[in-house]
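Example record used in the benchmark description.
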Amino acid sequence: LPQLTDELDEQLLPIFLEEAADQLRDLTAQLRAWRAEPAGEAAPHAIARLLHTFKGNARMAGALNLGEVTHQLETRVEDARRAGAASATLIDEIENGCDTLALAVERLREGPAEEVPAETAAVAEHGAGTPAAGTVPLPAAEHEAETDGGGQRATLRVRADLIDRLVNEAGELSIARARIEGEMRSLKTSLLDLTENVIRLRRQLREIEIQAEGQIQARVAQAHDGEAEFDPLELDRFTRFQELTRFMAESVNDVATVQQNLLKNLDDANAAILAQSRLNRGLQQELMGVRMIPFASQAERFYRIVRQTAKEVGKRANLDLVGSQVEIDRSVLDKMLGPIEHMLRNAVTHGLESREQRLAAGKEEVGEIALTLAQEGNEIILSLSDDGRGLDPERIRQRAEAMGLLASGQAIEPAGLFDFIFQPAFSTATELSQLAGRGVGMDVVKTEVTALGGRIEIVTEVGRGTTFRLYLPLTLAVTQTLLVRAGTQLYAVPSTMIEQVLELKDKQLAMLRDKGEAEWQGHHYPLHFLANLLGDAQALPEVHRRYWVLLLRSGSQRVAVQVDELRGNQEVVVKNIGAQLARVVGIAGATVLGDGRVVLILNPVALASRGAAHGITAVQPAAAVPAPVAVAVSEARLPTVMVVDDSLTVRKITSRLLAREGYQVILAKDGVDALEQLIDERPDVILSDIEMPRMDGFDFVRNVRADERLQDLPVIMITSRTADKHRNYAYEIGANHYLGKPYDEDELLALVAGYCRKAH
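Model output (structure tokens):
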């Protein structure tokens, strides 16, 4: 072809590049249709029309050489269309020509396109072609412009970093709202505590009034004859006292009124926050929709990689994309493009046999590679499978032994054996090429997937093929989670992993411990305690009336996890946790709660399986790999102390002291409340006050000692009444120890530790 001088137009070139992505994708689709029906008329006609449009756009943008090449290609297609049925060789040539066009467009984008301001980068509607670097496809703005050809929607170009910043700021709004909600919950709790204290204050004030009236009556009875003619209220010594009690009664009523008004205002504020949260969630979803792009937008480049790789190694391969309309976060897709391309090249180079080997094995000459996408909850499952030779365990073992990763003859499970392919510089290729076999790649694939909070499963069968199943997050911005507590730490578990939450009594939990697993709807879930999975082998579950076990599933793996407490569902903003933590198996990310606490987002299924396969699960169809052995939840429990006191301050101070020393604390505000809780819970020791409403400490101890189940339960009485009379009476009714307020912390902790050791 004669070499022409390009005269690129800075204003028109970005428009041409934007449209070229769509046209090249349509060309690829029509070529596949033509190959499927070589004698058809529709496909070659559509190809010729697309090439004609492409040629005109290229010349208009000043890419004269590209326009000339397109013209020659268009001529070939027109000749083939007039000649009738096209041969496979001709279609291959046309396909190669279209690949040349794609490469030329890429060069134009990387060269002259770099001089174009970032604001004019290519942005297309959903389903658009490959976006330029640093841009994101956006949904078209809903501005309709009626033309002779019908409705036409306007498009808006926005920089990708601006969209990312808006999504992040919407997430920060969620965190700020969560903080307000937390503060309002605390305020409501404080107001309810205030209600109790007002009731107690009113009762005490009434007692003062009764005492005052009694003293007045007694004073009247003892009054001298000369003073009898005066009413007691007329005497100065009584008048001021009576006035103060009346003033205090009015003040208590005023406080109660203010407290009721505050509760009403709080309810109104809660309603406003709820409306604001709905608006905020809608804004987030709209912004997330902007970030989502269909996987099909990258389909053309994957077809081209398979074609070029097959041509390079002298094989024939067909790529089938299933579920390509599934939408995925742009940032996730950008990070996975390289790994997917490498796996496609590997599938052609290493996975598929040569033509002769395939025919000898009774297979079709053309190898089949399938790239399947499916959305399951908040995860994207990407499966790449081929019908090739499968992974050869013997060659992997030989290579691992040669690299010193495995001792000669050492027994190893298939899961561990296939894990070696993710080691750096590990390759079983017999010869190197520019496409694959240089020992670089699969370790990068694992690193990228793990950094995104995903994981890989391998399904392989010798002679039949291999499937790599990648589990990726749908989005990296916002996710629904269940907040749980294990010990003193809060964690978030993605809601999409939770199949069921079991609320069990002590006996039911003991049955699960004996079996070592939970069973639900025919599936088995190995039982674990979350703190043990996180590496704290000495951690023990707390004592509760009810126990909570989460039944989790991720892919084909299932696990049951016991936690100490459920804190409710919460939509969280996923934050970047950095390169160090991103490589830790089982940590899917982190979030910030409204009170500023950083909470890790866990994948307990990966935590449970990391010991067996380091996060990579290999499944052999012929002989399934046994599930990881469950770490039995210990029957031992955390030492538990019950604190019974009507003073909110004493309860808080004592519970903080004990919790700091590693005890589980149960709080009761009087004897009646304590007895109600003792019906379902048995602590190791009780700390009780004496003077309490409804039931004082002495009556409480008598009730405890009268119960056969609780009669041996240690009771330490802590009170401001230190007289021998009270002390002796406490010992008579069954108290184990008697301390005065303020108590010595070391003495109290020593007593509690001693009683807890006896209990355990």
